[in-house]
Amino acid sequence: MAKSHGTEEERPFKCDQCGLAYPKQYLLRSHQLMHVQAECHVCKKVLSSNYALKVHLTQMHSDDGNQICATCGKIFRTKAAMERHIKEHMGLEPIERMQCEYCQKWFNGKYNLNKHIRFLHNERGQVFRCDLCAHESPNSRALSYHKQRVHVQEKHECELCGKRFKRKLYLREHIASHTNVPLYTCEYCGMKFNSHANHFTHRKNKHPEEWEAHKRMRMLKKMSKH
């Protein structure tokens, strides 16, 4: 009597991690590569497989869009800024507190101080007009945001479903819904998210005590460094 397709006799090579079985040993070996953990060389996050690492690198650390910190979800516009931030998480790069000479506000590092002075003090009193419409912005950063939000075309297309987005970040979060590889994890309950906004709202609404305690600790740290 002929054996039915897919019996244990026909698929003797079984994966000891997920239970899938294969008729040939080389097919099992190829499959087992999916279970090999791989570490991201940028942020040191450990992924469940080489495929997950590839998706992570594309979504989080590609050179053609915003960079997302896998630890806290903070977004950076350049890879260099992202790498500096990761070093701060790892304790490899100390953060120097610097004070604004105009308003005495404190900032973490020279980069944040210079950005504050440029947008809040150097451009104060100026009007930045959009060359595409009649909109006026208080500084160049606000004008840039206006153009991206209103005038930028939806040029980032999902290869899986064809949906288009204005920003690369929105496309990355959308692709995560296809791949089921979460971008953010709640540090209080472990719940995972594909959206930075949902991650933020979840922590604030579902863990209000922890959220407030976290805010108080950050405030105390700032005060202790003054």
Walk me through the structure.
43% of the residues lie in helices and 13% in strands. The protein has a two-stranded antiparallel ribbon. Strands 3-4 form a two-stranded antiparallel ribbon. The protein has a two-stranded antiparallel ribbon with strand order 5-6. The protein is elongated, with a radius of gyration of 24 Å. It is built from 8 helices and 14 strands. It has 226 residues and is α+β, with helices and mostly antiparallel strands. It has helices at 25-32, 50-60, 79-89, 109-122, 140-151, 168-179, 196-206, 208-225, and strands at residues 13-14, 21-22, 38-39, 46-47, 67-68, 75-76, 97-99, 106-108, 128-129, 136-137, 156-157, 164-165, 184-185, 192-193. The protein has 4 domains: 11-62, 2-Layer Sandwich (Double Stranded RNA Binding Domain); 65-94, 2-Layer Sandwich (Double Stranded RNA Binding Domain), CATH 3.30.160; 97-151, Double Stranded RNA Binding Domain (2-Layer Sandwich), CATH 3.30.160; 183-225, no CATH class. Helix 7 (196-206) packs across helix 8 (208-225).
